[in-house]
Design a protein that fits this description.
By secondary structure, the chain is α+β, with helices and mostly antiparallel strands. The chain has two domains: 183 residues, no CATH class; 292 residues, von Willebrand factor, type A domain (Rossmann fold, 3-Layer(aba) Sandwich). The protein contains 15 helices and 24 strands. Strands 6-5-4-3-7-11-16 form a seven-stranded mixed β-sheet, with helices on both faces. Strands 1, 2, 18, 21 and 24 form a five-stranded antiparallel β-sheet that branches. A three-stranded antiparallel β-sheet has the order 9-12-13, with no helix packed on it.
Length: 589
C-alpha cells in the first residue's frame, strides 16, 4: 500500500462531497487551537492536527498476489567479510518464508560506500592516503548484481576470507557465478526468477533466488571505511539513479535490512572537506581537537559524539551521546524519508548491527555496546586513537575464532546513531539484532520475515476519516495499477454494517479471511469499509487511523490490473505529522 497527504488539486471530485467535508472538518475559527501551555513539539503538532484536517490519497492493493521489496544495505568496509558470509549462509530460510507467501518479490543489495570527496574535487589537497574513499559518490546506493567472484582481482583477494567464502575450496557460497539476476536486483514474478543460466534447470524459484543472493550479497570488503548506511539506503530508494528504477514498486511491502559493524557516518555534503584523510597528532591540551587530529576511521565518531571524557584520550567513555550541530546529516532526515515511503503497517526496518552505546549505559555499564578507546600500544597520539579491539570492542562474538581468521575477531564497533534512527519508528516496525551473534542471524531474519508476512495481511489509511452522515468521508474506487493517482471512473458504496464490522474485528483484515467472507457474502455490489480496528492489543492494526477494506460482490476474483484508490478527509496521526516529508497538504476547510 502507498499513501500520501494530498497537495495537488482534487479535480473531478464532486462539489457536494467537498462541501460536505468542508462542513465536517472546518475548525471553529473563532476559537484558537487548544495547545496546552508548555506543550512539547509532538503535543503541539497533535493539537494543531485536531483543528486542521487533511485529505489522504491511499492506494490499497486488493490483488491476491502482493508485492514485497527487500533492500539489504551491506557494509563493504574492511572486517565485513565474515559477517557477509554469515548472512549469506542464513539467507535460504528467509527467502523460503518470503516465497511461501506466494507474493512477487524483489531483493536488492547495495553497499554503505557513498564516497568522501567534496563536490568538484578529484582528490584531497594532501593526497589520498585512503584510496578506497577517494571518490565523490562511491556506489551511490546503486543496486549490485555482480557475482562476488568478479570482485576478486588478485591472488591475494582469492586467498582472503572474502575470496574463500565466495569461491574457495571448502563450501563456497558462489561456486557458479552465472547465478546473477538480469536486472540490478533479484526478481521473482509468479514462478519465474530473473536468473538465466542452464545451471538453474530443475531448481525451484526459491532455490534460484537463494543462490543468486549468495553470489551478489557477498559485496566484499573493498569499500570506503567511512560507512554511510543511512545515506546509502536513502539513495538506493530515492529514484535518483535510473539503474534502480523499478526496484521499489508503488504498492509493495518494503523491508530494509542493515548489516554493518560500525556507526553511521553520513556526512553533510557541505562538510566533506573535514574528511581529508591527512591526519596530524594533536596534544591533549584541547578536549575537542580539530577533525584533522584524528585518523579517518576514528574521526567520525570522535567528532560526532560527546562523552564525559574527551574523545582525544584513551579508556572507557561514559554518558556518551550525539554532539549537537556536528558534521553529520541529522538522523531525522532519514526518519522523514522512510516514513514518507510507506505507512508503518507496510514498512519493516531491521538493523543487524552493534548493540548501542545507550543500552550499555542504561544497563549500568555492563554487557555489549561500550565505547572504549585505545592507542597503538603505548602510543596514544590522537592520530592513532581508535575504538578498542577484541574484549575492548563494543561486542565480540562467542567463539570468535570459529567465524573469522581475523586477529581482531568477529567484532562490532560502538554506535548510537543507528539505534537512535530505528527507535524513532513504531516498535512494531523494526527489528534490532547484534552483529556479534552470527549463530543467530537465521533467527534475526526469521523475525524480519514474520513482520513481512504480517504486513501483507491488511491495509491502513493515512488518516482517521471524518464521519459524514454516519459514513466515512471517503471517495473509493478501482484504478489502473500503473496509474494509482488517477481518479476512479465510478465510486464504490460503503458496505453494510455487518460486513464492515467483520473487517474491524479480523486479525487479518483481508478478503480471504473466513469471518469477512461470511459477513460480506450477502453484499450485492462491490463496496468498501473504512473502520476503526476492534482487535484487542497487541494485535490491533491501524491504531491511529482506520482499516481499509474492499469487498467484491460474490467474492469475485480481483482484477490483477487494478488497485483501489481511497481518498478520505480526516485527521492525520501524530507520527505522520512529525515525519511527513512533503509538508504541504490540502486544507479541506
Amino acid at each position: 500500500m502507498s499513501r500520501r497527504l494530498l497537495s495537488h488539486s482534487l479535480v473531478g471530485l464532486s462539489m457536494g462531497f467537498l462541501g460536505g467535508i468542508a462542513g465536517c472538518s472546518a475548525p471553529d475559527l473563532s476559537q484558537p487551537c487548544p495547545i496546552p501551555p508548555g506543550a512539547t513539539e509532538a503535543e503541539r503538532i497533535a493539537a494543531l492536527n485536531a483543528c486542521f484536517k487533511v485529505m489522504s490519497a491511499d492506494v490499497v492493493d486488493t490483488r491476491l498476489i502482493k508485492d514485497i521489496d527487500v533492500l539489504f544495505l551491506v557494509d563493504n568496509s574492511t572486517s565485513m567479510s565474515p559477517k557477509q558470509k554469515a548472512i549469506a549462509q542464513a539467507i535460504p530460510a528467509f527467502i523460503q518464508k518470503i516465497d511461501a507467501t506466494k507474493s512477487n518479490y524483489h531483493i536488492g543489495v547495495t553497499t554503505s560506500d557513498v564516497g568522501t570527496l567534496p563536490p568538484g574535487k578529484t582528490s584531497f589537497p594532501g593526497g589520498a592516503m585512503e584510496t578506497r574513499c577517494n571518490t565523490l559518490r562511491g556506489d551511490d546506493g546503486q543496486l549490485q548484481n555482480k557475482a562476488c567472484s568478479a570482485r576478486l582481482m588478485t591472488q591475494a583477494d582469492m586467498m582472503s576470507e572474502f575470496g574463500q567464502a565466495c569461491k574457495g575450496t571448502m563450501n563456497p557460497l558462489c561456486p557458479d557465478p552465472s547465478f546473477v539476476p538480469s536486472n540490478a536486483w533479484i526478481s521473482k514474478d509468479g514462478d519465474k526468477v530473473n536468473v538465466s543460466t542452464p545451471s538453474a534447470m530443475g531448481l525451484t524459484p526459491s532455490q534460484i533466488a537463494q543462490r543468486a543472493f549468495q553470489c551478489i550479497g557477498l559485496v566484499g570488503d573493498f569499500g570506503c571505511g567511512v560507512e554511510a548506511p543511512l545515506e546509502a539506503a536513502k539513495r538506493a530508494l530515492d529514484e535518483h539513479l535510473p539503474a534502480n528504477n523499478g526496484f521499489l514498486r508503488p504498492n509493495s511491502v518494503l523491508a530494509v535490512i542493515f548489516l554493518t559493524d560500525e556507526d553511521d557516518c553520513s556526512v553533510q555534503i557541505a562538510q566533506r572537506q573535514l574528511l581529508d584523510p591527512a591526519a596530524i597528532s594533536c596534544g591533549t591540551a584541547s578536549t575537542d581537537p580539530e577533525h584533522k587530529c584524528f585518523n579517518l576511521d576514528y574521526r567520525c565518531i570522535a567528532k560526532s559524539t560527546v562523552c564525559n571524557e574527551p574523545l582525544s584520550t584513551t579508556g572507557l567513555k561514559t554518558n556518551c551521546r550525539e554532539s549537537p550541530g556536528n558534521f553529520l546529516e541529522p538522523v531525522d532526515k532519514y526518519v522523514k524519508f522512510f516514513s514518507a515511503l510507506r505507512p508503518k503497517e507496510k514498512l519493516i526496518l531491521a538493523g543487524i548491527w552493534t548493540p548501542s552505546i545507550q543500552d550499555f549505559q542504561s544497563s549500568g555499564g555492563t554487557g555489549p555496546g561500550k565505547l572504549f578507546i585505545e592507542g597503538a600500544g603505548t602510543d596514544v597520539r590522537t592520530d592513532v586513537l581508535n575504538r578498542g579491539q577484541q574484549m575492548n570492542a563494543a561486542c565480540l562474538a562467542q567463539n570468535s575464532a570459529m567465524w573469522t581468521t581475523d586477529s581482531k575477531g568477529f567484532f562490532g564497533q560502538a554506535q548510537h546513531r543507528l539505534s537512535s534512527f530505528i527507535r524513532k519508528f513504531d516498535k512494531n516496525v523494526y527489528v534490532e539484532r547484534s552483529i556479534c551473534d552470527p549463530a543467530n542471524y537465521s533467527a534475526a531474519l526469521d523475525s524480519i520475515a514474520e513482520k513481512v508476512v504480517k504486513a501483507l495481511n491488511g491495509d491502513c489509511l493515512a488518516v482517521k476519516p471524518l464521519q459524514q452522515n454516519g459514513a466515512p468521508a471517503c471517495l473509493v474506487g478501482f484504478v489502473d495499477v500503473n496509474q494509482p493517482d488517477a481518479l476512479p471512473d465510478t465510486y464504490l458504496p460503503q458496505c453494510s454494517a455487518g460486513c464492515c464490522n467483520a473487517w474491524a474485528t479480523a486479525q487479518q483484515p483481508v478478503a480471504s479471511t473466513p469471518s469477512i467472507q461470511t459477513a460480506c457474502m450477502p453484499e450485492t455490489k462491490d463496496c468498501y469499509c473504512a473502520v476503526d480496528s476492534k482487535v484487542p492489543a497487541p494485535d490491533t492494526r491501524c491504531t491511529d487511523t482506520a482499516v481499509a477494506g474492499v469487498w467484491r460482490a460474490g467474492n469475485k476474483p480481483v482484477d490483477s490490473n487494478k488497485v483501489v484508490s481511497f481518498r478520505c478527509a480526516g485527521t492525520r496521526p501524530p507520527t505522520t505529522a512529525s515525519y511527513d516529508q512533503d509538508q504541504s497538504v490540502i486544507d479541506v476547510q
